């Protein structure tokens, strides 16, 4: 029996998973890096992106491409607005206390999930892909849309990377990350940077959600796994390190596909969760991070 | 022991007297509800040892609750031991699990500690699902052993009154035991580690050991509650190991007042009654929990008794 087609298929599926994971984990990592808080509602922002994408796409029933394009623009913008409201209304008022933020965002995730359940319902909903393209491999055909996800994710991450390194806004974000008080003294509007970063993190998760809906489906509980996996990626990659996050997303996305071939899904989850907890205990800087350099 | 804080001691005795007296005025469903409140209050009091007194916010206490519940339940179901022995095994099981997890998790602090405890608890939950042929998984297991002999007296755990009095006895013992611990030198050490670990270390105390002691105490009391819950109601299941269980302990403690002895008891009672009353609106229950978590962190971080302590009654600690 030839193993090549299986490996190719697992590799392709892993690559798609890795790109979505990369977007969602980068959002979490960005928020942690700049604001030093963990957003437990991150998975719900991903879910809101997917559900919002479905709602917007179903407003334009006859033109899947147009509906999808609108969803990709509007759903993340709405999620970003919600994130800004959460930042102004909750996080800022508790002074970004790391423990209180976790408790409050757990509360936020309960509310979002339940409101979506009560409005959107418990069913999974499908969205038509914006285009149908079957890419022929020698052994099987593969959805061109899924490869489009990979391309969009790569472009977005590249843009984010250049933006952080080259733009004035990126400089302000890095300055805030490096030393909040000095940044404030130099006239950087730290409060607005925080709101912006929190919104950007949420929007990255929402974009990932919109992108995945045509390939999977939208469901009110779909935020759980990405939250856990994003945690895994961010911890393995080193909390707050963007290159580490990207490397870890690719590694984990690819290996997750292979793991679930060999183990039962529950056992795979047990092993990966345990390993990640141990990484956090024994190597808190992550596998790719350097030892603590910043205060 | 009494002289450390006589007013709080008197209040604890009053609470215990009210608990035992309540069965003469209440009957039927309220007794059952109160039984659950007493058992879950033990869980919240245990959680409060780590979170309130020693300042270690764990998101994984479902693991210790479940460890006690499964150790006791499995011993009762497969081990052919009586209920009191199974209860003891449950407590020991929770102590062992919290010691193991404590040695690992306490290498981290604050945010990492929260995530690590959450992940270990998730592993425990998944393990109960993975080994469903032994644990019963999602479906759970019913325990057939429903009575034990206390000297000449046969206690029948299918009777509501017996369950209530067993729960009330365990609750009282835990409450008085924790009173003795928290109001004496040990409680001061916990608070010292919470408020200023560097200075505590400078004064010659082993901070790591104090933290571990608080964590194991906390996990063991939580597990005592889990063991009691399983044996009292004759049922153990994976749903008790879920993340939601950890959040419940956190919520009860936050509502009542972290770092106050009776706060978690009050929080458990209020929240359980509130959820009961919301019975018709069960769909809205997570929204209430979520909104409360946010509101408490925003406006009321010290909880009910914590606020009363700071404003009026400094002995309420």
Automatic annotation (TrEMBL), chain A:
<keyword id="KW-1133">Transmembrane helix</keyword>
<dbReference type="GO" id="GO:0022857">
    <property type="term" value="F:transmembrane transporter activity"/>
</dbReference>
<keyword id="KW-1003">Cell membrane</keyword>
<dbReference type="InterPro" id="IPR001851">
    <property type="entry name" value="ABC_transp_permease"/>
</dbReference>
<keyword id="KW-0472">Membrane</keyword>
<feature type="transmembrane region" description="Helical">
    <location>
        <begin position="227"/>
        <end position="254"/>
    </location>
</feature>
<feature type="transmembrane region" description="Helical">
    <location>
        <begin position="20"/>
        <end position="38"/>
    </location>
</feature>
<dbReference type="InterPro" id="IPR052157">
    <property type="entry name" value="BCAA_transport_permease"/>
</dbReference>
<protein>
    <submittedName>
        <fullName>Branched-chain amino acid ABC transporter permease</fullName>
    </submittedName>
</protein>
<dbReference type="GO" id="GO:0006865">
    <property type="term" value="P:amino acid transport"/>
</dbReference>
<dbReference type="Pfam" id="PF02653">
    <property type="entry name" value="BPD_transp_2"/>
</dbReference>
<feature type="transmembrane region" description="Helical">
    <location>
        <begin position="193"/>
        <end position="215"/>
    </location>
</feature>
<keyword id="KW-0812">Transmembrane</keyword>
<comment type="similarity">
    <text>Belongs to the binding-protein-dependent transport system permease family. LivHM subfamily.</text>
</comment>
<dbReference type="GO" id="GO:0005886">
    <property type="term" value="C:plasma membrane"/>
</dbReference>
<feature type="transmembrane region" description="Helical">
    <location>
        <begin position="67"/>
        <end position="86"/>
    </location>
</feature>
<feature type="transmembrane region" description="Helical">
    <location>
        <begin position="261"/>
        <end position="282"/>
    </location>
</feature>
<keyword id="KW-0813">Transport</keyword>
<feature type="transmembrane region" description="Helical">
    <location>
        <begin position="140"/>
        <end position="164"/>
    </location>
</feature>
<feature type="transmembrane region" description="Helical">
    <location>
        <begin position="98"/>
        <end position="120"/>
    </location>
</feature>
<keyword id="KW-0029">Amino-acid transport</keyword>
<feature type="transmembrane region" description="Helical">
    <location>
        <begin position="45"/>
        <end position="61"/>
    </location>
</feature>
Automatic annotation (TrEMBL), chain B:
<dbReference type="InterPro" id="IPR001851">
    <property type="entry name" value="ABC_transp_permease"/>
</dbReference>
<dbReference type="Pfam" id="PF02653">
    <property type="entry name" value="BPD_transp_2"/>
</dbReference>
<keyword id="KW-0472">Membrane</keyword>
<keyword id="KW-1133">Transmembrane helix</keyword>
<keyword id="KW-0812">Transmembrane</keyword>
<feature type="transmembrane region" description="Helical">
    <location>
        <begin position="212"/>
        <end position="237"/>
    </location>
</feature>
<feature type="transmembrane region" description="Helical">
    <location>
        <begin position="166"/>
        <end position="191"/>
    </location>
</feature>
<feature type="transmembrane region" description="Helical">
    <location>
        <begin position="86"/>
        <end position="106"/>
    </location>
</feature>
<protein>
    <submittedName>
        <fullName>Branched-chain amino acid ABC transporter permease</fullName>
    </submittedName>
</protein>
<feature type="transmembrane region" description="Helical">
    <location>
        <begin position="249"/>
        <end position="275"/>
    </location>
</feature>
<dbReference type="InterPro" id="IPR043428">
    <property type="entry name" value="LivM-like"/>
</dbReference>
<dbReference type="GO" id="GO:0015658">
    <property type="term" value="F:branched-chain amino acid transmembrane transporter activity"/>
</dbReference>
<feature type="transmembrane region" description="Helical">
    <location>
        <begin position="113"/>
        <end position="132"/>
    </location>
</feature>
<feature type="transmembrane region" description="Helical">
    <location>
        <begin position="31"/>
        <end position="50"/>
    </location>
</feature>
<dbReference type="GO" id="GO:0005886">
    <property type="term" value="C:plasma membrane"/>
</dbReference>
<keyword id="KW-1003">Cell membrane</keyword>
<feature type="transmembrane region" description="Helical">
    <location>
        <begin position="282"/>
        <end position="300"/>
    </location>
</feature>
């Amino acid at each position: 029996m030839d193993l090549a087609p299986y490996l190719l298929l697992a590799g392709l599926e892993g690559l798609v998973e890795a790109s979505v994971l990369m977007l969602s984990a980068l959002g979490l990592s960005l928020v942690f890096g700049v604001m030093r808080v963990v957003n437990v509602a991150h998975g719900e922002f991903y879910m809101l992106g997917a559900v919002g994408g479905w709602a917007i796409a179903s407003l334009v029933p006859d033109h899947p491409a147009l509906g999808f394009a609108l969803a990709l623009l509007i759903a993340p913008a709405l999620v970003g607005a919600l994130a800004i409201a959460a930042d102004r209304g909750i996080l800022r008022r508790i002074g970004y206390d790391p423990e209180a933020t976790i408790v409050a965002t757990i509360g936020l995730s309960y509310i979002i999930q339940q409101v979506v359940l009560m409005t959107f319902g418990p069913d999974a909903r499908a969205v038509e892909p914006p285009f149908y393209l079957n890419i022929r491999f020698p052994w099987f055909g593969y959805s061109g849309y899924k490869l489009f996800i990979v391309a969009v994710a790569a472009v977005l991450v590249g843009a984010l990377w250049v933006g952080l390194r080259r733009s004035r806004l990126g400089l302000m974000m890095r300055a805030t990350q490096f030393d909040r008080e000095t940044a404030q003294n130099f006239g950087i509007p730290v409060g607005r940077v925080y709101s912006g970063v929190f919104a950007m993190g949420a929007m990255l998760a929402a974009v990932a959600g919109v992108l995945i809906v045509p390939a999977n489906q939208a469901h009110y509980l779909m935020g759980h796994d990405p939250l856990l996996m994003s945690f895994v990626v961010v911890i393995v990659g080193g909390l707050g390190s963007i290159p580490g996050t990207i490397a870890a997303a690719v590694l984990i996305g690819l290996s997750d596909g292979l793991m679930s071939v060999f183990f039962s899904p529950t056992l795979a989850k047990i092993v990966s969760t345990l390993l990640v907890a141990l990484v956090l205990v024994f190597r808190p800087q992550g596998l790719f991070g350097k030892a603590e350099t910043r205060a | 022991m009494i002289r450390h804080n006589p007013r709080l001691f008197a209040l604890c005795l009053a609470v215990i007297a009210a608990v035992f007296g309540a069965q003469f005025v209440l009957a039927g469903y309220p007794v059952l509800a109160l039984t659950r409140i007493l058992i879950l209050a033990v869980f919240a009091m245990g959680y409060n040892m780590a979170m309130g007194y020693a300042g270690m916010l764990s998101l994984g206490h479902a693991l210790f609750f479940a460890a006690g519940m499964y150790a006791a339940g499995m011993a009762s179901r497969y081990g052919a031991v009586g209920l009191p022995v199974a209860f003891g095994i449950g407590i020991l099981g929770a102590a062992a699990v919290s010691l193991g997890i404590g040695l690992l998790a306490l290498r981290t602090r604050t945010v990492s500690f929260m995530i690590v405890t959450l992940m270990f608890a998730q592993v425990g939950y998944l393990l109960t699902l993975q080994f469903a042929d032994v644990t019963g998984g999602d479906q759970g297991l019913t325990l057939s052993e429903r009575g034990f002999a206390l000297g000449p007296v046969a206690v029948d755990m299918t009777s509501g009154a017996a369950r209530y009095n067993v729960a009330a006895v365990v609750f009282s013992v835990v409450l008085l035991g924790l009173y003795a611990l928290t109001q004496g030198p040990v409680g001061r050490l916990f608070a010292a580690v919470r408020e200023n670990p560097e200075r505590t270390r400078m004064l010659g105390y082993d901070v790591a050991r104090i933290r571990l002691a608080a964590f194991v105490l906390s996990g063991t009391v939580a597990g005592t509650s889990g063991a009691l819950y399983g044996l009292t109601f004759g049922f153990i299941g994976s749903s008790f190991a879920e993340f939601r269980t950890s959040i419940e302990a956190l919520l009860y403690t936050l509502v009542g007042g972290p770092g106050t002895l009776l706060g978690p008891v009050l929080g458990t009672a209020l929240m359980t009654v509130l959820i009961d009353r919301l019975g018709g609106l069960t769909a809205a229950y997570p929204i209430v929990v979520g909104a409360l978590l946010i509101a408490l962190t925003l406006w009321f971080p010290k909880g009910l008794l914590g606020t009363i302590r700071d404003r009026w009654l400094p002995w309420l600690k």
